[in-house]
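Q: For a teaching session next week I want to show students how multiple molecules come together into a single three-dimensional assembly. I've collected the sequence lines for a complex. Could you give me the predicted structure tokens for the whole thing so I can convert them for display?
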Amino acid sequence: NRRFVLAERPQGEPTAATLRLEAVPVPAPEKGKMLLRTEYLSLDPYMRGRMSDAPSYAAPVAVGAVMEGGTVAQVVASDVDGFKPGDRVLSYNGWQDYAVSDGVGVTLLDPQMAHRSWALGILGMPGFTAWAGLTQIGQPKPGETVCVAAATGPVGATVGQIAKLMGCHVVGIAGGAEKCAHAVGRLGFDQCIDHRSADFADQLAVAAPKGIDVYFENVGGAVFDAVLPLLNTGARVPVCGLISQYNATRLPDGPDRLSMLLGQVLRKRMTLRGFIIFQDFGHLYPAFAKAMGDWLAAGRMHYREDMIDGLEQAPDAFIGLLRGENFGKRVIRIGPA
Ligand code: NDP
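A: Of course. Below is the structure for the complete assembly, covering every listed component.
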């Protein structure tokens, strides 16, 4: 059983020293437990938070413990009611080949499911995040302008496509021409602006001539600075993630613009609301699963995976995710040993 444990808490960007590969015997499941073999490991931005012991909504991974992560796995042996060898499940094996589980928090996947790994993306946590943040907090109306960054990732791509289905003008923000071409040509966004362009803020203003009514916040930093002046009176801002800040070791240089921000919130009567998907909206999961299942079956939703083979690739793939090197949902595929 190969596994990555947290070797040290990173300062700034994670490095090769952050995670350590270990080889240990495959665990033997005791009575009332089952043995799961990981087939797909999801890489997600929140994992950077788990590497840190700064106060957060979830406990950090302990130094020396297996790195956490959502997985699609095969049941190898089982003494848990409802699970038998060969079943495929959504589980939280973490960054390792095998895990033992008592079945709590483990969900059976439909054996007819065409793409099991999608349970880690558009049909799972990131897709649900997009749907709930947009519909519950963003509450876009037809004809409004919706803006979202990280536009080709699993959250942003889903936000923009749902907003199009709701009749909105959708402006994406992504890193590079190829991602922007995908957002417009494949995902159906009206516009997509490259946040690395020198005149990014000007291009964004042109792409949203009527201002922005819903800004789905995935990244923060310089992108938010460009969006803020474009927000309309009554704008809604689901605050989902701030990935541009996850490796930051201190606040940015001044001047302090907090009172300017609050002044805008006041004068434009805006709503900014943060959310943690399962803690805030877990009860809505069945409604999401039904809606998304229907859209996918009808061919109204596109999904792109960025699949990388081999557990040993996971640390570099994760560092690259925080840099924007992924193009679509980043998943590690782990073949049978
Ligand atoms: P993505 O697959 O979209 O990966 C992150 C992307 O962020 C990168 O590909 C890159 O895209 C973009 N990015 C990274 N650094 C910067 C930067 N400095 N400026 C602008 N963009 C940057 O991730 P997900 O779709 O999985 O997640 C998107 C966001 O949603 C994250 O912030 C995540 O933490 C958050 N999230 C929050 C949840 C919640 O419950 N609140 C649940 C799930 C996710 P590009 O190259 O296009 O810039």
